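Record 1 of the preview.
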Amino acid sequence: MWSVFIGAAACYKRKMHIGIDMLINLLPIKIREIVNLLLNLFMVILNGFIFYLSYIYVQASYVKPTPVLGISSAYVSSSLLVGFGLMTFYALKFFINDLIMIIKKI
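->
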């Protein structure tokens, strides 16, 4: 699980996730920049919410031991916190960078 969620965050950081941007590429540049800004804001909110839900899940899994090792499931579930925490951070970084770029053009 750790490699999956940290790998997902690494792909998000490098913008390597698959996206279908055919319709966005048809828009004029200024509208495309605004759409990208709104999409990044949406990703901040979505990843932040999933990060919050992950926190609740890790707290609930703290008392449950893993079947083989007998350690707390929270150690395994913490990968959710790290992965979605990083994705929230990167989404916020992308949003701020896009916002600064739009403000500089005004």
